[in-house]
Amino acid sequence: MMGRVTNEDAQLPVTAPLTDLAADVGVATRYTAQNGEEATVSRATILKILAALDVDLGPTPDDPSDEDILAAREAWADARWRRLLPPVVVSTSGSYKEVIVHVPDGTAVSVTAVLDDGSEWPLAQVEHNVAPREVDGVLLGEAAFAVPENLPLGWHRLRAVNEDATAECELAVTPGRLSTADKFVDKPATGVMAQLYSVRSERSWGIGDLTTLGDLASVSARAAGADFVLINPLHAAEPSPPVEDSPYLPTTRRYANPLYIRVEMIPEFSYLDEADAAELRDLAAEFRELNRSADEIDRNPIYAAKLRALHAIHHIPLSEVRRADYERFLAEQGRGILDYARWCADRDIEIRTAARDDDEFANGEFAGLVTPLGAHEDIEDLREELVDFHCWLQWIFDEQLRDAQRAATEAGMRIGIMADLAVGVHPGGSDARNLAEWMAPDASVGAPPDGYNQRGQDWSQPPWNPHKLAEASYKPWRDMLRTVLRHSGGIRVDHILGLFRLWLMPRMESPANGTYVYFDHEAMVGILALEAELAGAVVIGEDLGTFEPWVQEYLAQRGVMGTSILWFESDGPGVPKHPSHYRRLCLSSVTTHDLPPTAGYLAGEHIKLRDRLGLFDTEVGEEEARDLEWVTANLAAVDAAGCFEGLSDADGPVSGRDWKNISRDELPDAAPLIVGLHRYLARTPSALTCMALVDMVGDRRTQNQPGTTHDQYPNWCVPLTDHEGRALLVSDLPDLPLFGAVAEASATG
Question: What is the rounded CA–CA span in Å between residue 172 and residue 90?
Answer without folding.
Answer: 5
